[in-house]
Design brief:
Strand content: 15-25%
Oligomer: single chain
Strand order of the largest sheet: 2-1-3-4
Helix content: 40-55%
Order of helices and strands: HEHEHEEHH
Shape: globular
Number of strands: 4
Structural class: alpha+beta
Radius of gyration: 13 Å
């Protein structure tokens, strides 16, 4: 599990925006469409198509919180930091903080 953690840490630190998804997940689709619509080209990892997807999913569950209220995917990282799932992303968008966050991370140049 530690090597998975290092792999994820490297991935999110080297890319402005990383989204972990599962193909066919409607909430994952919404997250991707919002980011694409804003002009962001996120790095997308589809866990059901990744060799280590099951292990990454377990790690994301721990990161999202063990209370059972949060889902592991979609999981959004911006600027090397865990932003959260669709609720956090939409809250940032509604409150007008998402675009500045994306600019600070280097994902937008506008």
């Amino acid at each position: 599990m530690e090597s998975i953690y290092h792999r994820i840490s490297h991935l999110v630190s080297c890319n402005a925006v990383v989204v972990f998804t599962i193909s066919g997940c409607s909430m994952c689709h919404v997250v991707k469409q919002l980011l694409f619509g804003l002009g962001v080209g996120p790095t997308i990892v589809e866990l059901d198509r990744d060799v280590y997807g099951r292990h990454i999913h377990t790690l994301l569950l721990h990161l999202a919180g063990a209370d059972g209220k949060q889902h592991a995917v979609p999981a959004v990282f911006v600027g090397g930091k865990f932003l959260g799932g669709i609720e956090a992303l939409m809250a940032c968008h509604i409150h007008g903080t998402l675009v500045p966050l994306l600019k600070d991370a280097g994902a937008l140049w506008l």
